[in-house]
Amino acid sequence: MNLRADHHGEERRLFLLRRKIAAAEATLRTLEAAILQARSAQGLATAHDARLENERLLAQNHRMSQESVSVNAALQQAVQAAQTDPLTGLRNREVLWDRLAHDLSLARRHGKRLAVYFLDVDDFKQVNDEFGHAAGDLLLQHVARVLLASVRDSDTVCRIGGDEFVILASATLPEDAVQMGTKIGRALGTPCVLAGHVMAVSASIGCALFPEDGESPGVLVHKADEAMYRRKRARALER
Ligand SMILES: Nc1nc2c(ncn2[C@@H]2O[C@H](COP(=O)(O)OP(=O)(O)OP(=O)(O)O)[C@@H](O)[C@H]2O)c(=O)[nH]1
């Protein structure tokens, strides 16, 4: 038996084995390094994606709040248009009942009076017939301006149709309400130039007072309308 040769063979196997182990360890380290690199790349990609998603959501949020602002503006415009008389810019018939109920509850709570005036322009048809419909429109706009200038900001002026207007005004004493009716009549009677013609508007005005003449919106408007009609008849008889 050649012991020396055996020993030499054993050493060679060990040497080869160590080399294999070293190669395997090197491969393992390379793999670990690759895994680490891949994980960190994935991490970076995730952070990048998150940032992009965040920016996308912010932009979407901005777009949606801008849309909501313009939808709200359009809605407000629509509400405004539904409550406004297009010719004079005054509140229309639809608003009258809401305002009246609101003003009545305020008057009730504060123990105040509320005056409801019903106003109809006299012989308005003649203005249309003599000077044309456009001149009639100018006159109605003039009436609206005069009425607005004659009442307080907290009072309400509505055009409820044709040449008919209703005013809601808070009042302390019945005499105040009478005085205000006279003041409105005088202001309307002041001559003005419309469509190149000098005109002085005459209007029949009826007034009903809360709580003396009634407590409900329907009764008050009806009584003011009746009072206006009596005025108009008396005026016709005077002529
Ligand atoms: N220019 C114009 N005329 C209108 C408008 N709406 C209604 N009218 C006219 O207004 C007139 C209203 O006439 P009436 O109130 O019936 O009659 P009036 O001549 O005022 O007579 P009295 O009320 O009895 O004094 C009608 O001729 C309608 O055609 C409008 O928006 N513009």
UniProtKB/TrEMBL annotation:
<dbReference type="GO" id="GO:0003824">
    <property type="term" value="F:catalytic activity"/>
</dbReference>
<protein>
    <submittedName>
        <fullName>Diguanylate cyclase (GGDEF)-like protein</fullName>
    </submittedName>
</protein>
<feature type="domain" description="GGDEF">
    <location>
        <begin position="112"/>
        <end position="239"/>
    </location>
</feature>
<feature type="coiled-coil region">
    <location>
        <begin position="14"/>
        <end position="67"/>
    </location>
</feature>
<dbReference type="Pfam" id="PF00990">
    <property type="entry name" value="GGDEF"/>
</dbReference>
<dbReference type="InterPro" id="IPR052163">
    <property type="entry name" value="DGC-Regulatory_Protein"/>
</dbReference>
<dbReference type="InterPro" id="IPR000160">
    <property type="entry name" value="GGDEF_dom"/>
</dbReference>
<dbReference type="InterPro" id="IPR043128">
    <property type="entry name" value="Rev_trsase/Diguanyl_cyclase"/>
</dbReference>
<keyword id="KW-0175">Coiled coil</keyword>
<dbReference type="InterPro" id="IPR029787">
    <property type="entry name" value="Nucleotide_cyclase"/>
</dbReference>
